[in-house]
Design goal:
There is one protein chain. Helix content is about 40%, strand content about 20%. With about 425 residues, the chain is α+β, with helices and mostly antiparallel strands. The strands form 3 sheets. Strands 1-5-6-11-10-9-7-8 form an 8-stranded mixed beta sheet, sandwiched between helices. It has a 5-stranded mixed beta sheet with strand order 13-12-14-15-16, with helices on both faces. Strand 15 (about 405-410) and strand 16 form a beta hairpin. Bound molecules: zinc ion (2 copies). It catalyses: tRNA(His) + L-histidine + ATP = L-histidyl-tRNA(His) + AMP + diphosphate + H(+).
């Protein structure tokens, strides 16, 4: 912060006018750039290994898209959506998740013609008005993988494998998969009734939300985080006892595939994932020492029918990137394995400064990263800047060097300093960086 901005900030503070980000919406700051760069790079790398194409859908969608697909009695739709009217009078929502938009796009653009099944991934911000807490923001970022157009258990396993590939590439190796099946619309009906019978006996102990959900959507009681509802949940009927033959076979096939691939998992009969569009397999990744899951997903074979009037089986997952940053920090895992050394360019006179831009461009053309602080006058303050960005090499150009056609290279790692000819600049730097 320079002296000038300090004063400006102070006067704003005095008037109580210094702007702050909105509660629950965080800035992603330069200090965390390595995390986000590695998310983008790893996402593209893993996706191309697994044959997923990139897709990006708008942040704003019709509010009814989410209300229909996520479900009117879910926490997301009831309490967490940012819904508003546009100046044109349309009711829109900031997307609370990525799957509904991807399916909307799949149906709108007939993407089944592109490949079958369609394998896509997205990475972007989502919005939910939740209580902010560790790893949970109101604007947060998700990486999602979706496979649309096939109901085979093979693809449930493939989504899980692609996610694990992503986690492993980041250095997260100790994840446990929690998994459950929610059945199909036939067998879930019987389970729903059982659940309704069970919770009806404890109606007085349920929270007001769940009392209301009891009639319309008893499955959602299993998501409820109220202590009294959570206690009741532990004794509730087990959905796996109600699966029909087809759903049972599908779930067995998924478990066999993930066992064959050495994936650690735990059956969790109360895992329901908070969204109505899921059926059959649902899953979540957790890790010891973390109070939150790092991502989850499942099958959504009925979603296309709900929003597009045709049946298109699909399965997907979304991973919470802020939560992954948190996990990497807690576990002390650095996102970039090997940092490239950085070159800092210092110029002492006005003439040297003028000349330095062209020299830096030469280095950059050879893919050598160079930074500078040419707005600063003294060598001392430029060296301070070099120190701040943790440069390995400093190039110093002064009047004498211009006259001689040379430049000084100072290696901050060893303290060694020498004069080299400008003609040899690129090769000399390359030698020292290798
Ligand atoms: Zn079934
Ligand atoms: Zn409740």
């Amino acid at each position: 912060m320079t002296g000038k901005t300090k004063i400006a900030a102070k006067t704003f503070l005095k008037k109580g006018k210094l702007f702050q980000s909105i509660k629950g919406m965080a800035d992603i700051l330069p200090i965390d750039q390595d995390y986000w760069r590695s998310f983008w790079q790893t996402a593209f790398k893993v996706s191309s290994r697994h044959g997923f194409y990139f897709i990006e859908t708008p942040i704003l969608e019709p509010a009814s898209l989410f209300e229909a697909s996520i479900g009117a009695t879910t926490d997301i739709v009831e309490k967490q959506m940012y819904v508003f009217k546009t100046p044109g009078g349309d009711r829109v929502a900031l997307r609370p998740e990525g799957t509904a938009g991807v399916m909307r796009s799949y149906l709108q653009h007939r993407l089944s013609y592109f490949s079958l099944p369609l394998k896509v991934f997205y990475l972007g911000p989502m919005f939910r008005h939740e209580k902010p807490q560790a790893g949970r923001y109101r604007q947060f970022h998700q990486l999602g993988f979706e496979i649309i157009g096939d109901n085979s258990a093979f693809y449930d396993a493939e989504i899980i494998l692609a996610s694990l590939d992503f986690f492993r590439a980041l250095g997260l190796n100790d994840l446990i998969l929690k998994i459950n099946s929610l059945g199909c619309r036939v067998c879930r009906l019987a389970f729903r009734q059982e659940l309704k019978n069970y919770f009806s006996a404890y109606k007085k102990e349920l929270c007001p939300d769940c009392r209301r959900r009891l009639g319309r959507n008893p499955l959602r009681i299993l998501d409820c985080q109220e202590p009294s509802c959570r206690t009741l949940k532990s004794g509730s009927p087990n959905i796996l006892d109600y699966l029909c033959q087809n759903c049972n076979n599908h779930f067995k096939a998924v478990l066999e595939l993930i066992e064959d691939n050495g994936i650690k998992y735990e059956l969790d009969p109360h895992l329901v994932r908070g969204l109505d569009y899921y059926n059959r397999t649902v899953f979540e990744f957790v890790s010891s020492g973390l109070s939150f899951s790092l991502g989850g997903g499942g099958r959504y074979d009925y979603l296309a029918e709900i929003i597009g009037h045709r049946l298109v089986p699909a399965v997907g997952i979304s991973l919470g990137l802020e939560r992954i940053v948190e996990a990497l920090k807690i576990k002390n895992i650095s996102p970039i394995k090997r940092k490239r050394p950085l070159v800092f360019f210092a110029a002492i006179s006005e003439e040297a400064k003028k000349k330095s831009l062209g020299l830096m461009e030469k280095l950059r053309a050879a893919d050598i990263p160079v930074v500078e602080a040419l707005g600063r006058n003294s060598l001392k303050s430029q060296m301070k800047a070099a120190d701040k960005v943790k440069s390995s090499l400093v190039l110093i150009l002064g009047q004498k060097e211009i006259f001689e056609g040379s430049i000084i290279i100072k290696d901050l790692r060893t303290g060694a300093q020498e004069n080299i000819l400008l003609d040899k600049l690129v090769e000399e730097i390359k030698k020292r960086l290798s």
